[in-house]
């Protein structure tokens, strides 16, 4: 009779000896695969959003040209030229490539020496001055979103920016347009605070 504490074994057909059974997927592997899947889905969603935004922008430009009578082509002729001409096909390929690469280059991470606790006021002021408001806050993280629907729309609803504490560094992560502006503002606020404390 097999003892309860003994691991399950299988026979090796080549040598007739018993070999340990294959271990099941660990919880760490499951979490890693889940994170990988979520990251991939997020990347695809961002690409699709940007593609739709570029298409909408193109349609708006075409509509304005028709309304102002600056277009010599009808809507059907414009669409036909876009699909059939070499220039139009190059434009379509460029839009697809831009959409595919947008998530890779459209989101950045910036770091600055500081403390979430000690420099909380400067962080809040930097975000508020750039049109963001705090939505969540903990000991090691602050999360901000755009404070108006119009700003959220211009950022394709990818307006969430996270600020975390990494050692002695403040890390700001999110959409490039938002992070770059906030980071520049925060740098000046922190520099001013350091000069005042000297």
Which key terms come to mind for this protein?
198 residues; TATA-Binding Protein; five-stranded antiparallel sheet; 2 domains; alpha+beta; two-stranded antiparallel ribbon; 6 helices
3D architecture notes:
The protein has 198 residues and is α+β, with helices and mostly antiparallel strands. It contains six helices and seven strands; from the N terminus they run ββαααβαββαββα. The strands form two sheets. Strands 3-7-6-5-4 form a five-stranded antiparallel sheet. A hairpin with a 6-residue loop joins strand 1 and strand 2 (18-20). It is extended. The chain crosses the membrane at residues 50-68, 88-108. Keywords: Membrane, Transmembrane, Transmembrane helix. Residues 1-23 are annotated as: Disordered.
Mean pLDDT: 85
Strand order of the largest sheet: 3-7-6-5-4
Query: Could you please say which CATH topology of the largest domain applies here?
Result: TATA-Binding Protein
> N- to C-terminal separation?
78 Å
Helix content: 55-70%
CATH top level of the largest domain?
Alpha Beta
State the secondary-structure class. Answer: alpha+beta
Could you describe the largest sheet, including whether it forms a barrel? 5 strands, antiparallel
Gyration radius over CA: 27 Å
Q: Helix and strand string, N-terminal first?
A: EEHHHEHEEHEEH
Q: If helices are DSSP runs of H or I spanning 4 or more residues, what is the number of helices?
A: 6
Shape: extended
Count of spatially separate domains: 2
Spans of at least 5 consecutive residues whose pLDDT stays below 50 are none
Which homologous superfamily in CATH is the superfamily of the largest domain? Answer: Kinase associated domain 1, KA1
Strand content: 15-25%
Number of strands: 7
CATH architecture heading of the largest domain: 2-Layer Sandwich
Biased composition (Basic and acidic residues): 1-12
Region (Disordered): 1-23
Keywords: Membrane, Transmembrane, Transmembrane helix
Transmembrane segments: 50-68, 88-108
């Amino acid at each position: 009779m097999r003892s309860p504490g003994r691991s399950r074994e299988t026979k090796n057909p080549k040598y007739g000896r018993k070999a340990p059974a294959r271990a099941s997927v660990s919880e760490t592997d499951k979490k890693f695969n889940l994170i990988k899947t979520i990251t991939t889905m997020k990347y695809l969603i961002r690409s699709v959003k940007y593609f739709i935004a570029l298409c909408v922008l193109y349609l708006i430009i075409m509509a304005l040209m028709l309304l102002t009578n600056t277009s010599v082509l009808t809507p059907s002729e414009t669409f036909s030229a876009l699909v059939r001409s070499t220039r139009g096909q190059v434009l379509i390929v460029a839009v697809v490539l831009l959409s595919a690469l947008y998530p890779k280059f459209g989101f950045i991470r910036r770091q600055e020496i500081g403390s979430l606790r000690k420099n909380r006021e400067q962080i809040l002021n930097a975000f508020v001055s750039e049109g963001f408001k705090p939505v969540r806050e903990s000991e090691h993280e602050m999360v901000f979103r755009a404070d108006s629907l119009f700003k959220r729309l211009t950022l394709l609803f990818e307006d969430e920016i996270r600020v975390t504490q990494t050692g002695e560094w403040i890390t700001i992560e999110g959409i490039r347009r938002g992070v770059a502006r906030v980071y520049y503002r925060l740098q000046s606020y922190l520099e001013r605070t350091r000069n005042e404390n000297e």
